[in-house]
Amino acid sequence: MTADASHGVDTPPELVQLLTPEGERVEHPDYDIELTEEEVRSLYRDLVLVRRIDLEAVALQRQGELGLWASLLGQEAAQIGSGRALTDADMVFPTYREHGVAWCRDVDPVKLLGLFRGVSNGGWDPAEHNFHLYTIVIGSQTLHAVGYAMGLQRDGAEAATMVYFGDGATSQGDVNEAFIWASVTNAPVVFFCQNNQWAISEPLERQSRIPLYKRASGFGFPGVRVDGNDVLACLAVTRQALRNAREGQGPTLIEAFTYRMGAHTTSDDPSRYRLADELEAWKLKDPIERVKAYLFKNRLADQEFFEKVDAEADALGKDVRGRCLTLPDPPPEAIFQNVYAGPHALIDEEREQFLTYLAGFER
Amino acid sequence: MTADASHGVDTPPELVQLLTPEGERVEHPDYDIELTEEEVRSLYRDLVLVRRIDLEAVALQRQGELGLWASLLGQEAAQIGSGRALTDADMVFPTYREHGVAWCRDVDPVKLLGLFRGVSNGGWDPAEHNFHLYTIVIGSQTLHAVGYAMGLQRDGAEAATMVYFGDGATSQGDVNEAFIWASVTNAPVVFFCQNNQWAISEPLERQSRIPLYKRASGFGFPGVRVDGNDVLACLAVTRQALRNAREGQGPTLIEAFTYRMGAHTTSDDPSRYRLADELEAWKLKDPIERVKAYLFKNRLADQEFFEKVDAEADALGKDVRGRCLTLPDPPPEAIFQNVYAGPHALIDEEREQFLTYLAGFER
Amino acid sequence: MTTLTLAKAINEGLRRSMEDNAKVLVMGEDVGKLGGVFRVTDGLQKDFGEDRVIDTPLAESGIIGTAIGLALRGYRPVCEIQFDGFVFPAADQIITQLAKMPLRSLGKIKLPVVVRIPFGGGIGAVEHHSESPEAYFTHTAGLRVVACSNPADAYTMIQDAVRGDDPVIFFEPKRRYWDKAEVDLGAPGLPLDRAKIVRPGADLTLLAYGPMVKTCLEAAAAAEEEGRDLEVVDLRSLNPLDLEVLTDSVRRTGRCVVAHEAPVFSGFGAELAARLTERCFYHLEAPVLRVGGFSTPYPPSRLEDYYLPDLDRVLDAVDRSFAY
Amino acid sequence: MTTLTLAKAINEGLRRSMEDNAKVLVMGEDVGKLGGVFRVTDGLQKDFGEDRVIDTPLAESGIIGTAIGLALRGYRPVCEIQFDGFVFPAADQIITQLAKMPLRSLGKIKLPVVVRIPFGGGIGAVEHHSESPEAYFTHTAGLRVVACSNPADAYTMIQDAVRGDDPVIFFEPKRRYWDKAEVDLGAPGLPLDRAKIVRPGADLTLLAYGPMVKTCLEAAAAAEEEGRDLEVVDLRSLNPLDLEVLTDSVRRTGRCVVAHEAPVFSGFGAELAARLTERCFYHLEAPVLRVGGFSTPYPPSRLEDYYLPDLDRVLDAVDRSFAY
Ligand SMILES: Cc1ncc(C[n+]2csc(CCOP(=O)(O)OP(=O)(O)O)c2C)c(N)n1
Ligand SMILES: Cc1ncc(C[n+]2csc(CCOP(=O)(O)OP(=O)(O)O)c2C)c(N)n1
Ligand SMILES: [Mg+2]
Ligand SMILES: [Mg+2]
């Protein structure tokens, strides 16, 4: 058969897993990872803290303090595992849901809240954190990531870029163009797709008839599916892909197989389009519970540790909430700031007219 | 290895071939074709005639009668082979170079010339020929083809669509979105990519690092590479793909491996970017010579036949040239015609003003 | 007469269109089970099936491109672009194909494709969800561009858009989706390319479309208290313009203020100002003034009340006009 | 002083920019060995290497998207869009990303990306090769939009565009690529955002940019024979406008005609007419009139001479202006 046998409608997808939902540590022939107890505890702490930030944000939205929130509930392991695989020199391009990765890049959670509160469209300095701004136009950041990676190549930098996107995003022309650019230039970029099974109300079948990680084969670079609810596997697979990229072996597509346990955003009502059963099934694969079970069963952490983390989470939640409530609105003239880097006569004129107009109300 | 082993940087591409450059008939395990002598002679005639039309068009452009011409030289077999695989009910979406397919669909060549002469942007009735208008914006017609195929599905029609595009086009977002739509909807569409090795001055390596037919595997449908200079193989492979499509087996990507023997268009100067040697090597694989050799060696045609075809080609060339020269320019008011199907006040106003203005010169 | 929200009025109009003509399809992201993020297509998939109400892959170019293909096969697709700011991936298909193919075919091809775009701000949303991209399309020859402002119009305009043989960019004022009004489900509306004087007045003409019609009506009501009699005209059709109604109004009042949410600079208001000035030069007591968004990207939502022209900004322009 | 064609002047300007700053890159389809279909980048890849002069995959969204990424890494990409009609696949990256990212970052990000677009008609080309899409970009806040009209300006303007820290859409009048003129390779040009009176006059102001500047100069020369003294202003910058120069000119002459090749309806001329009318209301003897393409897709080339505003069409508008 000359028709490419790998078109793969029939091949069952493999899933890299290092920690089962029950918290059993399992081996994988291609990916393994040596972590200290401390490191695993630290990952657990990350997972709990980012979930808490997320819960707090959802609550703040319910109380009218945020215009919207896109919850990461269920995707903590995908984000922490991949986020902790990064080195400082690596550059990250997120979508709008990577609060866990932002956490790994030391972006103040309140800055994320600010965006959803409507005080800015961005808010942090991407260069300071090597964490780009959230991008809302689906898929467009994938090309930025490849361009940045082309820059890394030209600089001879020992670094890679990693770009996040969802299952739905794989349908956008831009994402596929990014695959082409990356493969043709052999750019040091890792495509990290969080397949959370849903693009708002649309199940994966509306975007692809084969497992997403196989998309890469059509462009000539490796694709791998990892258990997105397994923080160890996500860490191991991403670390490997980033290393390959840094070493000049070009791009990798990682499909983190996970589940959006909450609504698409706080504006969404998933009961209109998916069954509660599905959620229940995924709850059994919770990304945090399995780490807890693992730590506990293997006596790598005790009750005191878990309580300490919970307490830390409570404090963090409180802190984030408190600072969110006091986030100042930008002054009206901020509308005109930073539109251009250089002077711009039209902006200057409009700003002046507007300030005169506003002043009229004070008289 | 979980990384998809089929990412295929190393796999050597197979090429479906039924007729060698020397005119030897060879077998292929998956594709074969039974043709009468008459049918093979007819294919030969097609090849010769469309090459002649093309040569005439190039000459007309040189003489200032056309603004531009995109020559099909070297791609005759890909176009006639695939074009003759179509049934009347199938719908075709061409690029701007499918003069051979247009021939198979009974589009008057003078209408093609008209477009390049600048008397219209289209000129034939797509529904009359089931041959859509030439599309110049690279790749955009691939989505039209899939949409049309979705229509065929809804109509329960026993037909497929076939869409042509080049190697360069495979980099466009639209083409990849078309792959997604087609695979997700299992639309009856055949993607026919003429890989003529060049996108103007850019060699294939700027578009892909693996053989193009493998792109399909990333989307979950079959891809096949065929010798694009072998009219029999192109016919066999396309026939099969169209049949599969009509029978509900969804899309196929065909990569016809061929060569653009001429310039990109009459405006282009290939000596700036490619070596003459390359052309010489491909001349040995000429799509017409091998059919001639086959017919001759197997005594399926005699000298008289070849002379008759040449004479027919001469007559056709003359006819096309003559009618091209007398192609009338459209009247100025044609600018305003057919912009909208319904009445449109602005167009009406501008037309009237313009005609009044023009009339002013006659006074 | 039935009381409907604007969103529901479009829903009813779509339903009617689909009942009348089996070739009418609805397609877009989340238009099926979810009924669209604004519920405009609510219930349609349930009643007309998945073949006629299509949840598409997440790609706007693909939505318009395949809709063109379906139209070539005789279908009449109504595409939903989920939010104004997400129409740009489809710009190429709209501008180079949808708008130009009929002429390319010398009239052999008709493309009855409707592109619905919820547009405008004022709902406290994040970036790209509050924009007004109409000027990109009014400048694109081959498209009709309309904007509805109220439930009754929305109900008939969507049906007319679907019925016509031209591509139509159909703007829906998203912050008015929940506004309710009486709708006569039996009455035919004003033709799609006609403007409507929604409040007659003698002193100045306020021109608006979509969400700003309501704002202008409020401004006119407020101005009345100050003794100014403002006429408010709802354009309804942006391309083509109903110049008869507009010219007549401006000639009568001698003053004109145009309001839209999009940035003023190179926005659609410029066309209105330029064209009406040509036609009403000797009647104008003041230049046609424009009120709109600033020449900046749409700001974060905590600033949108400053950015969006409101009653005060409109009245300020009215004052400036009377100052001439 | 050296005699250069406009195409060669841009080439020299690019070369100078690349010599001055190692971060400057050139990228696009066929810009390498071929030197671009108009040879504007001729020889650059040979001299600066494949890492700085990049033949890209055939995808405009990818060109702009990766250029943004390169700019984020500190590079200064100059992208070529092969023809005006092929910019639309990149519309999303230009409008939602390139234009808006600096504000999104509260100024942390600068995007010094130049997008070169050969534009306009008059070369007998097939569809999509003769368009004038400037209004799509002038309406997009966050972008600077400029158009050069002659070799000397082209040489300095491209360097200024590359040197600035803002994204610039750089329009090049393709049918003037082969026009020759003296260029002083040492002299600094007028700042990028300044307009230039290219022919002073007292009776009427002709406003133009890109290819129409020459046409307007010819029209002014012809009008002179009829005793009319027309001023011609080359805008150079479309966003922002140099309103001081424009307003002053129109106030002096009291009449204004705007000329561009793009369709008049909702085109950039509307902004000029509307804004100048606001600023010069009491000085205007006639409405600002517009001459441009019709509200139709660009016609097949055998009709383009009718479609494109030529000397006669410009003078006809001048006559109409004087008829007021
Ligand atoms: C170009 C574009 N089209 C539409 C949208 C509206 N939208 C926001 S999120 C979303 C679904 C995204 O799904 P996916 O890529 O799977 O990411 P997830 O939200 O599941 O993380 C859509 C359609 C958008 N933001 N951008
Ligand atoms: C969107 C778009 N970008 C650029 C061009 C200019 N252009 C015309 S043909 C061409 C190369 C096409 O190469 P390929 O797809 O291989 O087809 P071929 O011409 O070799 O048949 C380019 C870049 C175009 N027509 N459309
Ligand atoms: Mg998803
Ligand atoms: Mg090619």
UniProtKB/TrEMBL annotation, chains A, B:
<dbReference type="GO" id="GO:0009083">
    <property type="term" value="P:branched-chain amino acid catabolic process"/>
</dbReference>
<protein>
    <submittedName>
        <fullName>Pyruvate dehydrogenase (Acetyl-transferring) E1 component subunit alpha</fullName>
    </submittedName>
</protein>
<dbReference type="GO" id="GO:0016624">
    <property type="term" value="F:oxidoreductase activity, acting on the aldehyde or oxo group of donors, disulfide as acceptor"/>
</dbReference>
<dbReference type="GO" id="GO:0000287">
    <property type="term" value="F:magnesium ion binding"/>
</dbReference>
<feature type="domain" description="Dehydrogenase E1 component">
    <location>
        <begin position="48"/>
        <end position="315"/>
    </location>
</feature>
<keyword id="KW-0560">Oxidoreductase</keyword>
<dbReference type="InterPro" id="IPR029061">
    <property type="entry name" value="THDP-binding"/>
</dbReference>
<dbReference type="InterPro" id="IPR017596">
    <property type="entry name" value="PdhA/BkdA"/>
</dbReference>
<dbReference type="InterPro" id="IPR050771">
    <property type="entry name" value="Alpha-ketoacid_DH_E1_comp"/>
</dbReference>
<dbReference type="Pfam" id="PF00676">
    <property type="entry name" value="E1_dh"/>
</dbReference>
<keyword id="KW-0786">Thiamine pyrophosphate</keyword>
<keyword id="KW-0670">Pyruvate</keyword>
<dbReference type="InterPro" id="IPR001017">
    <property type="entry name" value="DH_E1"/>
</dbReference>
TrEMBL record, chains C, D:
<dbReference type="GO" id="GO:0016491">
    <property type="term" value="F:oxidoreductase activity"/>
</dbReference>
<dbReference type="Pfam" id="PF02779">
    <property type="entry name" value="Transket_pyr"/>
</dbReference>
<protein>
    <submittedName>
        <fullName>Alpha-ketoacid dehydrogenase subunit beta</fullName>
    </submittedName>
</protein>
<keyword id="KW-0786">Thiamine pyrophosphate</keyword>
<keyword id="KW-0560">Oxidoreductase</keyword>
<dbReference type="InterPro" id="IPR009014">
    <property type="entry name" value="Transketo_C/PFOR_II"/>
</dbReference>
<dbReference type="InterPro" id="IPR005475">
    <property type="entry name" value="Transketolase-like_Pyr-bd"/>
</dbReference>
<dbReference type="InterPro" id="IPR029061">
    <property type="entry name" value="THDP-binding"/>
</dbReference>
<dbReference type="GO" id="GO:0000287">
    <property type="term" value="F:magnesium ion binding"/>
</dbReference>
<dbReference type="Pfam" id="PF02780">
    <property type="entry name" value="Transketolase_C"/>
</dbReference>
<dbReference type="InterPro" id="IPR033248">
    <property type="entry name" value="Transketolase_C"/>
</dbReference>
<feature type="domain" description="Transketolase-like pyrimidine-binding">
    <location>
        <begin position="4"/>
        <end position="179"/>
    </location>
</feature>
